[in-house]
Amino acid sequence: MILSRVVKGVAKKVEQRPAVPPQNLMGLVLTLAKAMIFVYSETLGKWHLWDLSRAILYAIMDKGKKTVPMECGERSDCLQLKDPDMLKDLYELKRCLTRTMLFSKKRYHSRLSDAGFVEEDVLLRENCEILVPAFTVVRDRESKCLFVFIRGTQSLEDTLTDAMGAPVPFQHKFICSISHDGEVTRNTISGQAHCGMVAAADWIEQHCTSILLRALRDYPDYKVKIVGHSLGGGTAALLTYRLRETRELSTCTCVTFGPAACVSLELAEFGKPFIISVINDSDIVPTLSASSISDFISEVKIKHKALLNAAHRAITAIESHLPLVSGAKAIANHAVTSGAKRLMKHKKRVHSILHWSQHENIVSSSNSKSSNEDESNFSSDESDYDDDAFDEDDEQVISGEELLKLLEKLELESQDITLNMNVQEKKEATTKEITEENRVVHNEEKVGAISTLDNSGKHPLYPPGRIMHIVPSRSFGNLSSNHNGPDEKHLYLYETPKQLYGKLRLSKGMIFDHMTNKYKKMLHQLIDQLENKHYQYGG
Questions:
Q1: What are phi and psi of 30, to 5 degrees?
Q2: Domain residues for 528?
Q3: pLDDT in tens, 346-358
Q4: At the N or C end, where does the chain have fewer CB atoms within 10 A?
Q5: 51 and 69: one domain?
Q6: Are 160 and 34 part of one and the same domain?
Q7: DSSP 264-319
Q8: What are phi and psi of 208, to 5 degrees?
Q9: Is residue 369 in some structural domain?
Q10: Is 73 within 8 Å of 482 (Cβ atoms)?
Q11: Domain count of the chain?
């Protein structure tokens, strides 16, 4: 008892400890413990292992599920972007992604010249640690821009940063206006953000702000842009919020590819003017958060319970008809047994009457004086023969009449019994069904109430800024007829609302669609498609 209290107290202190990159062995142990406690509390501490595996299996086998690309073709708040002027933006997005892929590699030096850079253009390079993703500060003379490229998840340290996904309070003190005297007016927007990514963004801010300010003094006409993919995308967005609080960096912008769900809805909407998030097809990462996982498992459990209740009601309904079959068999057996008993009784009665008749004939023949012995014998033989014949005919007639009467009586009895049994069974089945439905409704209301209470304390996270979703025409399913032709390779670009990403979406391509190579391929294909369309119409 005392030990459990001590363990709970230590766990609570570890959870309340702020997430910072560990500086020593004790800090490393506490950081690992914090990550493990959060992962356990959101998985096995809340759900059984069977619940997790069943939820995944159900999501994979569910043919009626809807992915984000499918909903893009149905929802009216999804805006298709088909302006030819989008080509310029797509060129810039592809350039940012290509350079992010370059500086995400450990051996990027050999390819600097191919990308148009020299060694002096790399202003800062930091390798990854726990709560510190690898990042690079680069000066691009061609586009007159200072880039901060943040790498996605590629190591165990990055995975631990991802695992610390508890929502924590996050404030953005943005600059409203600057007076002629240089006085800055600020306002604050508050929300929740991914714990590990907040720690990573704060650490990067401390190390790159001075580098950026120095470079801006040397190149005052340069812009600042933060770029990242996956974990790097979420960290880049949070870093942009932090940097824009500095007066000299208040105009910096951000581009993310497949960003993690990292901010609450208020912050995500606030970042629309300066953050662009590109999402490819069925990429799962933008929908992956502690809240979406919890809601996903709860939804599967409710559906599973409803399925079990429906099966139970069906089995109960089938079982309610089984006593009728056994009752019919019992009635038939009773009719046969009763009929046989009555026939045996009737046979005994007939034989006793015949025996008495034969005895009377013998007495009358012995007292007769006019008959000789041969005639008496002949008469006796003949009378015996006639009596036997009479016995058989009488037995057949009587048996037939009695049997018909018996069967009619049994039929009436069986109808009464069956009717009573049907009425009784219907009453019992109706009572069971009503009781079961009341129990199911009560359970669902109870689950709904618990879910509502849980949701009140949850903080859903979403991908940041303005979302541009790349959707292949094959993802529309039956809706492809509403678009430009049945070509499965045709791509569409949609601006989508944040609410689409508050629900976890599982699909076959959810992992492959998250890879940077897939993003690059889809952007290249989308650019070629728009170029062909542009040239086709004489652009």
A1: -65, -40
A2: 65-289+464-536
A3: 666 656 665 555 5
A4: N
A5: no
A6: no
A7: -HHHHHHTTTTEEEEEETT-SGGG-SHHHHHHHHHHHHHHHHHHHHHHHHHHHHHH
A8: -110, -15
A9: no
A10: yes
A11: 3
